[in-house]
User: What shape does this take?
Amino acid sequence: MIKLFSLKQQKKDGDTNSKSGPQKKASAAQLRIQRDINELNLPKTCTTDFPDPDDLLNFKLIICPDEGFYKGGRFVFNFRVGPNYPHEPPKVKCETQVYHPNIDLEGNVCLNILREDWKPVLTINSIVYGLQYLFLEPNPEDPLNKEAADVLQSNRRLFEHNVAKAMRGNYIGSTFFERCLK
Amino acid sequence: MEVNNSSVEHLPQLSKRFGHLRKITERPGPFCHANFSASPENLEFLSTTCKILIIGAGGLGCELLKDVALMGFNDIHVIDMDTIELSNLNRQFLFRKNDIGFSKAERAAAFINARVPTCHVTPHFCKIQDYGEEFYRQFHIIICGLDSVVARRWINGMVLSLVKYDDDGSIEQESVIPIIDGGTEGFKGNARIIIPGLSACIDCTLDLFPPQVTYPLCTLANTPRLPEHCIEYVRVIQWEKENPFKAPLDGDDPQHILWIYEKSLERASQFNISGLSYRLVQGVIKHIIPAVASTNAVIAAACATEAFKVATNCYEFLNNYMVFNDGDGIYTYTYAAERKPDCLACSNIPRSVSIEDPNTTTLEDLIKQLCEDQEFQMKSPGLTTLIDGKSKTLYMSTVKSIEERTKCNLTCSLGELGLKDGQEIMVADPTTPNTIIIKLKYNTNEVEMK
Ligand SMILES: [Zn+2]
Assistant: This one.
């Protein structure tokens, strides 16, 4: 066992009164997100946007699906990575209003790895792929937008029609969807 | 604040009060630690030199303060940002009814100072993040009685950042501040010692902290079955939608809790769910698990004993993690939590990179060096640093929007970028599993700042 301090030792340069010192070391969360970002391997349908390149904790992901119901659309997701990353997942919101069974009108996204199935070994890339998959295979079993889910389950053609209509900027039922074509 | 230096004059009184401690610290014995030398100097060190910080003045904190004050520590600091609430009084025994609404740190300090006159407790009514290295550097030992993972990771990172390394990468022992961390959850608790840089740290053992209970969003939205589902729905969805107080949710604001309670109740009755109470709402929002006073007492006692052992060297200290559970009988065991070789917090010893002349070496040269150097052999490093505590991205080639806005840095000299001798640069690269830290070492001392 090491002997941590000799008895006579006085701590040298402590200063109780100064509310001081800028942080000199990056936090574990910062180190981890830097790796995640540096190693982002985006599918060709996705791009990222960092409004402030010095801030790797807040950024946007833009998905432009090239197949499926949502082909031709452009969907923006906002990522907020907290100080407890990767112990806790980032907070992800969809900023584009979208007619989608797993995304509600406030932009909440029902994706298991964003909440109950998050694990610290997962990365930003895992989330990107998860989100992309939501556009290829909307899942009516786990609905956040129940009306959209019901339509998808009962009438795929109508669902397809509604998605296309919403993306052009239209009312579906009583909800107006802003145009989000690429 | 003036630190009380009069403790030495109290030594005669001390010797009587601390008779038992003297028996331990002034007599040798077969079970003593090899480094131990029996002497009155041991207690004197505790009472005159040793400076100890207690983080948190809540359930564990009150116990810890009482324990360390009675074990001969005299120069004690306590930090807590919270104020006293009625519901604290059953177990946070340093507080009385007329303390409600006041700072926990200040009232706890005042209580101990009045009760144990040889002892001087200095309160800090603020967040741990309000202080920097200068503050934390002054302590010999830090004891944590915290209830959040974020706060633990923060103090862990802070203490690790104080650890200094020689040029050959070995630790300078004087820079090491042991953390003794206590935690309780109902009938369960744990106490552990972290010797930063030498034993498992908080981040090495993050898996031990259970993740917060979360429910699938679609369950909350469509098929709630539990009262917790209703509360979470209101918290996650309705609060953001309606933003009733034009402010982020504050679990300590009774108005906020009441709003959530009422909305959750509506939702629960809509889905025929019973069992929703105001207390449950509070519990879910603040992630409260009912506190058991005796668990706090046991864990605090273990932590204080370890602090005593570390400070006096009288016995071997805990190696390094003790689990305690008295929910069903009493069960306890101790094991050595292992360091994670790739821990981001403690295994990241900065590697020196020597720079001939910071005024002529450009960022591009540095990146080239990282790619060509035998030791690094990187492929596409992304570099960031901290300048005045603020994160700055120097260059990152892999993300287009960042590359475009940082490529102008490539032709700047390190001096022009504001990078000083000893500056730490965080480097992420596909060839390393983690972001590594390099430390610039300038061979010329003169840096022309632009
Ligand atoms: Zn570690």
Q: What stands out?
A: Chain A has one domain: 28-177.
